[in-house]
Amino acid sequence: MAFELYYWDGIQGRGEFVRLTLEHAGADYVDVTREPDRGTDEMMQFIDSSSEAHIPFAPPFLKDGGQLVSHVANILLYLGPRLDLAPRDEDARWFANGLQLTITDFVAEVHDTHHPIATSKYYEDQKEEAKARAAEFVMNRLPKFLGYFERVLKQNPVQGGHLVGDSLTYVDLSMFQMIEGLVYAFPKAMKHHDIRYPGLARLHDRVKDGPAIASYLASPRRLAFNESGIFRRYPALDIDP
Amino acid sequence: MAFELYYWDGIQGRGEFVRLTLEHAGADYVDVTREPDRGTDEMMQFIDSSSEAHIPFAPPFLKDGGQLVSHVANILLYLGPRLDLAPRDEDARWFANGLQLTITDFVAEVHDTHHPIATSKYYEDQKEEAKARAAEFVMNRLPKFLGYFERVLKQNPVQGGHLVGDSLTYVDLSMFQMIEGLVYAFPKAMKHHDIRYPGLARLHDRVKDGPAIASYLASPRRLAFNESGIFRRYPALDIDP
After folding, report:
1. Matching Pfam families, A to Z (chains A, B) (predicted)?
2. What's the confidence (pLDDT) of residue A173?
3. What percent of chain A has a predicted confidence (pLDDT) above 70?
4. Nearest CA to CA, how far is A235 from chain B (Å)?
């Protein structure tokens, strides 16, 4: 039975971290809201349900038969071992989940660069505050997060270029998406990132060029980044540090 | 061997969600940075290590012998089954982790009410933006989160007053802390919360009055809320909706 992914149509968003894992594994899945005969209404029925026990707070969530799993890090924790994209040993699995939760925080901070005051309002209504928050992000938070992940790569005793253990995991796929999104949204701030964070740049390129991901990226299933998603290219927010 | 909790001294902060679970279970643990012969330096050695493979991004993290686990939701996922504070069935465990991750997001939004622009700056340097963000929080986000958790309680088929399944889990303990913190930080906004969210109020009171937690709350191990933590009482940010 196919996995069913529920996420907003029209953007990569948080759903993309799940999609990359499903695509890399060649898993049988349905992107429910993008199906012609299904759609967002079906997703909202789970969220608005007044009878289901396990209601999700927000998309993305995944259905695997009767099992519903919500939140990106939770979905990847669930899928990882099932798709052979989790570390094999227990110790490393706890570390992988911690890394994915750091990526979760990183994503939320990227989002807040364009929405520092109110998710319910437009970027244009909080542009001045967004400039201030983005400056803090580019100057302090971005180097802190990327510097940390570069150290994690460097201190992996296996030295195979993966964040955890000796083979590719869902955390590596998520890190690819972070770099890809940051380069899209902050081209000035990310200039020369490959010199400052060489391990992350190599990991990014390696994921991008892998056959399954390369084929996915060239397919219509990969939507382009746009200014409704998490990673938005607003020149006013992109500074050269 | 005792669990070792690493977190900033002087505040409840994110470490408190872990403490409540350890305390409720009567677990043998050491709060490392508060030990007279140990301290924050020892914590920073893990964070700044240039040789360890599994470095944490930030506190809190837990050591259980040789196993290091970082991030609140990850630590609770690890401790839950070991301290008999996780749901028994698999399906419910995935739901519990999803709920805990929603609490993680909720906590981050509480933090950002007083730091909407820059974590590296004082509240006083972003007070106007904090007022705008707090207004959004009180009017839109707070009712959205609390309304969701109230529905989760209501739709739990067991109807025993717990968020998941038929017995107390770490998620219930975290929800107690959320209500406690919100009432401290936003007394006006939380006025009559017990009428609007009666299930959550009952859950809060039940956790508070349980013997292990009541004893913990009366002990010097429970620090008071203060204006260095996540939940801060700034009258300028508290509005009557």
Report:
1. GST_C_3
2. 98
3. 100
4. 18
Asked if A179 and A204 count as a contact pair (C-beta separation under 8 A), the reply is: yes
Which among B67, B92, B136 has the least Cβ separation from residue A91? B67
ipTM for the whole complex: 0.98
CB pairs under 8 A between A and B: 134
pLDDT value at A1 more than 90: no
Region A105-112: mean pLDDT is 98
Q: Is the domain A90-237 a CATH 1.20.1050.10 member?
A: yes
Please identify every stretch of chain B with a pLDDT value under 50, giving residue numbers as ranges: none
With a CB cutoff of 8 Å and minimum separation 6, the contacts of A107 are: A14, A72, A178, A230
Token pair 């009428």: residue: B195
| Contact residues for B127 (Cβ-Cβ < 8 A; gap 6+) | B236
d(CA B142, CA B159): 24
In degrees, to the nearest 5, what angle opens at C-alpha A79 toward C-alphas B52 and A144? 40
Give the residue carrying structure tokens 């890090």. Answer: A73
Q: Which residues of A touch B108 (CB under 8 A)?
A: 105, 108
Contact list in B for residue A17 (CB cut-off 8 A) is none
Q: The tokens 């938070």 sit on which residue? A: A141
| Each residue's pLDDT tens digit, A29-64 | 999 999 999 999 999 999 999 999 999 999 999 999
Structure tokens at B155: 């739709």
Q: Where are the beta strands (DSSP E) in chain B?
A: 3-6, 29-31, 61-64, 67-70
Domain B90-210 has CATH 1.20.1050.10: yes
Among the listed residues B225, B235, B182, the one whose alpha carbon sits nearest the alpha carbon of residue B204: B182
Give the model's pLDDT for residue B241.
87
Residue B163: Cβ-neighbour burial (10 angstroms; 0-12, 13-18, 19+): buried
- Interval B162-216: pLDDT, tens: 999 999 999 999 999 999 999 999 999 999 999 999 999 999 999 999 999 999 9
Flag whether residue A57 sits within 8 Å of chain B, measured between CB atoms. Answer: yes
Structurally, what CATH architecture does the domain formed by A3-82 represent?
A: 3-Layer(aba) Sandwich (3.40)
CB–CB contact B133 A118 (8 Å): yes
- Segments making up each domain of chain A, as ranges: 3-82, 90-237
Tell me whether B65 touches chain A (CB under 8 Å): no
